[in-house]
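Next up, sample data:
>
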Amino acid sequence: MNAIKITLWMVTISLSIFVLIIYHLHHFSFARNHHEPNKMYQQPPSSTRRVFGTPMRHIPLDEIYKDIPLHDQDLSLEFEETRSVQHMINTPGCRIPVAMVNYKKPHKNRKRGYCGYRAVFLEREDIDKVRVVIKEKSIKKYLKRGKKYHCCYRFFQRSTKPGHEHRSLRFSKCTKIHDRETINLEQDFINVQCFENSNYNQTHRIYDDVYAFCKKIKVKNATTCGKQYNVLLIGMDSMSLSRFVQTMTRTAKFVYDKFWPNYRGYHKVGDNTFPNLMAALTGHNISSIMKSCSGRMDQCNNKLIWSIYKNSGYVTAYGEDHLRLPDIFSKDYSFRKSPTDHYMRPFFLKEEIEINNHSLLCAGKISSGQQLLDYAINFVLTYKDDPFFGFFWMNSFSHNMNNHPEDADRMFEDFFNRLYYTGAFDNTFIIFLSDHGIRFGENRILVESYYDDRLPLLYIWPPTTFKMNYPDKLKSLLINQFRLITPYDLFDTLFEISKLADCDEVENEAADPNHNSIFSVISPNRTCQDVGIHDKWCSCHNLYPLDAEDAEGIRSVHFAVSHIVSVMQTIKTKRCWSCTHLSLKN
C-alpha cells in the first residue's frame, strides 16, 4: 500500500514539473514575439494626441507603391541604398562626384557675440493681444545714475511718403506701459523704449528693442475643389549641401531622423543669389527678368509665386534679414509697395547692427536671424486655420566667410522642432533651401569648391496628408532626389501645389518643356544643356588636376591673363591713375 502511495506521489510531482516546463517554454516563446506595449507609447485618453510607432522591419518603398504604374525602367526607390558613394547623382545624363570642402576647421579663441540682454518681453496672449513683462532686475542693469525709469511702446511701418516707401519708416505715438499690462496688437512691428528719469527732470534713453508679430488680416476665401496645402520656404544664403551637413549637424540630424527628402542633384543656374532665387520664384531666367522688371519691380510682382498663391486665396508673407546686402530685391529690383500681405523689410530697416567683427547681426536685443525665424513661427500660428504661403530668407549667419552657420544650428533645430509640435507638418510643405555655395574666400582655391559652389542645399518636407492622398506624386518626389533638378523645377513644383485644390486647370505662364515639377519623374537622361544650365556652371563631370608642366594648361593660363590685361586697358581711370599691371608670379 505504501509502495503504491509513493509511486502515485512521484508520478504527480513529475507531471507537475512537466506542466511547468511546458508552460514556461510556451510563455517565453510567446513573450518574445508579443511584447507588452510600454506605457509611454500607449494611446493617451485624449483624442488630440497621436503616437507614431517604430517599424520593426524595413519594407522597400517599391513594395509599398507596387500598384503605381511607372514609365521608366530606372525608377527604383531603393536607389539610395545601392548607389555609389562616389557620386552625388549618377545618371546617364549627369554624374556629379562627391567633393566636399572641409568646413570643420577649428576656430581658435573665437568668442560668440551677443546682442544684449532683453529686459522687456512681449508675449502673444490672443490673436490681437500682447502681454508686457518687464524684468525689474534686468532693466536696472541699464540704469546709469538714478533708480527711476519709465517705458513706452510704439508701432512702426513703412513710410507712405512717395519715393521713400522702401527706405523710411512711420511711427505711432509712444504710449507708456507697465509690467503685466496687456496692449492691443494694431500692427506687425513694435518698438519699446525705456528712459531713465534723472534728478533734474531730464530723461535719457537706456533701452531700445524691437518685436515682430503677425497682425491677422481677413483672408479672402477662394472657391476650391480640394484640400489646400500650406507652403513655407526657409532659406539660408550661400549654403551648399556639404557646408550644411558639416556646420549645422543638429539640424542635419533633425531632417535626417524625420526622413526629409534631400535633393543631392539640386543645381544652381546662375552666379549669385538673384538669378537663382528669381528662377525659383518666377520660373524665368535672369535675362527675361532684367528686361521686364528692372526699375519696375512692383509691376512685376504678379510674376512672383506668392502672387499666384494670393490669387488662390492664400495669405502671404516675405521676410529677409541683412538689408545692406545687395542680394534679392534691392537697387533696381526693390519694391516700393509691400509685395505680400506681411512684409518684414520695415522691421529690419528700423535697426540692424553688425557686431563681433561683422560676424553677428542684431535687430534689437536679438539676432536678426532669430527675429526672422520667430516671425515665421508667429506667421504659421496666426494662420493655422487658413491657407498660407511664407518665404523667409536668412543672410546673416552664412553669407560671408566670417559668418558662422554653426552658431545658428540650435536655432534652426529649435525652429523645426517648434514647427513639428504645432502640427504644421500635417498640412504644410516645408522647403529648406539655399541659392549656391561659397563663391569667394580661401576655400575657392580648392578643386572641391567648384562643386561646392554649384550645389546648394534643398530639403522638402511633404505634408503627412499629402503622402496619403497623392502616393504617385510622392513616389516621383522621392525618386527625383537622385536626378538633376534646378530652381526652375522648384517653381513648377510650387505652382502645382498652388493648383492642387483648384476646380479648373490653370496654365503656368512660365511653363517650359525643359522644366519639370518634381511631382513627375524627371528623366535620368537629363543634361545641363537640357535645363538651361550654362557650361560654365555645369558640374556634371569630373575635374582632373593638370601637371605643372602641362603644355595645354600653360597656354590656357597665358591666354586668360592676356585677356584680363586687355580688358583692363580699356577701363577709364582718373588722371594720373592707372590699373595695376598683372602678371603671373612664376
